[in-house]
Amino acid sequence: MERLLVLVRHGQSEWNLKNLFTGWKDPDLTELGVEEAVAAGKKLKELKLTFDIAFTSVLKRAQHTLDLILTELGQEGLETIRDQALNERDYGDLTGMNKDEAREKFGEEQVHIWRRSFDVPPPGGESLKMTAERTLPYYRKEILPRVLAGERVIVAAHGNSLRSLVMDLEGLSPEQILKRELATGVPIVYRLTEDGGVESVQDLAD
């Protein structure tokens, strides 16, 4: 039985381009982001991958990415479940702030700690650990059982919500996952074992 799970981070968003902390705010894709999403769909098409169900966040940059991918695959109208459990990490008081301005205001070291530590949240926001505490239960309850039942599943979400899933799937430590970069618009193809472990992983980055 095939147990296929594809994770893809949304294409570049308008706030990515402006170097802003985005979190739960809802900007759409840039022209480049649209191109990245279309390219992701083409890569999956080249591998002759299609899906039985899709999951995404409630934020339009992830939904738009998914829509563009499914259009490339000829799967417009595929059953799609949207849930805020897959939303990006909430950056709290940093949301909407330019990352360079944040460094000037709070200091380079403090901003680095907020961005790159596992369990230190920015003021009013979430750490990666807190993000994982909402994404992983959702993954284990709603997504993983469908993969293990033989459904081919695609998840279009965000850098940090996906990072928490990658950490769990690949058995990475907090230190290892913080160094793991997920490129925008690049699918990661997992084939899972019957107990939910990873049999193989293919990163479709060029």
Oligomer: single chain
CATH hierarchy class name:
Alpha Beta
Largest sheet: 6 strands, mixed
Q: What is the H level of CATH, i.e. the homologous superfamily?
A: Phosphoglycerate mutase-like
Compose a concise summary of this entry.
The protein has 206 residues and is α/β, with parallel strands linked by helices. The chain has eight helices and six strands; from the N terminus they run E-H-H-E-H-E-H-H-H-E-H-H-E-E. It has helices spanning 14-17, 31-46, 60-72, 99-106, 108-116, 128-148, 159-170, 174-178; strands at 4-9, 53-56, 80-82, 153-157, 187-192, 198-203.
Could you walk me through the main structural features you see in this protein, from its secondary elements to its overall organization?
The structure is a single chain. The chain is an alpha/beta fold and 206 residues long. 43% of the residues lie in helices and 15% in strands. It has eight helices and six strands, in the order βααβαβαααβααββ. Helix 2 (31-46) crosses helix 3, helix 4 (99-106) crosses helix 5 and helix 6 packs across helix 7 (159-170). It is globular and about 50 Å long. The model has no long low-confidence stretch (mean pLDDT 96). The record marks 158 as: Transition state stabilizer.
